[in-house]
Amino acid sequence: MAEPAFARSRFFSRLGARRLGRTLVTLAETASTNDEAWAACAAGAPHGTTVVAEAQTRGRGRAGRAWHTAPGKALAISVALHRNGRGAPLGLVPLAAGLAVARALERLGAAPSLKWPNDVLLGGRKVAGVLCESRRLSLAEGGARGPGALEAVVVGVGVNVLQAEDDFPAALAGSATSLAREGVAARREEVAAAFLDALEPLWEELERGSRGTLLEEWSARATFWGRPVTARTPVGEVRGEARALTPDGALRLVDADGAAIDVLAGDLSVETGS
Ligand code: BTN
Questions:
Q1: Which residues sit with their C-beta closer than 6 Å to ligand 1?
Q2: For residue 4, what pLDDT is reported?
Q3: What is this structure's pTM?
Q4: How many CB atoms neighbour CB 48 within 10 A?
Q5: Closest by alpha carbon to 161, among 202, 120, 203, 100?
């Protein structure tokens, strides 16, 4: 059953993060919460400004795909993060964002796994997707920061929270799930707060130029190590056995000739073993 609009008071009563989510924009409908977060950045909104919408008319997924948000049932959330220019490589941000979603769902009682670069799965089906975008903005006003350049990342997350089986389009029936379908009773406000609480320390670690335990923790939640995979990259398909993450967040495969290939961006299909 769909819930009434995202309850700000419930969200703030759960939120522990000091900076992320403290400025919160809640919308009934928008094209994309990532676009709203970029608009907020350009208008000088503070680090951690967060946008949540009940519905998106042009929600974006990775690789130019569309993302559907079921009104009142799914969480569509974007958070704008200011960079200090001395942080860890950008390729680590999607991993940190996926790990934050996984940790959030664990806090709510789920046992998720991760598929590179940042799909979050429950029972082998996708329960959440992450779209990270980075830009350099020239700010005329800059809000509290004053005018100047701003390097920022917007992390957008879609989580299937309350959908029942027949809420998913037929094309996603076998590949998508929701927290409710997997027996995890959680509200969208709790998922949002838990996500921001988990992302804040990971982001601060990256901004200090450190990876902390990101790569180890991410790797421990992946189930495809040692399996044959196909990575669809912007420059073609690569097949190999999934071996490890590189320090920059790429996925290292070893192909049939034993050559190591580091995949920087793409979508992964994991071959199911017989
Ligand atoms: C993917 O798995 O392809 C990424 C999906 C990301 C969807 C979220 S929903 C909130 C934010 N706004 C968007 O337009 N996209 C992201």
A1: 32-34, 56, 59-62, 65, 67, 76-78, 119, 129-131, 156-158
A2: 76
A3: 0.95
A4: 21
A5: 120
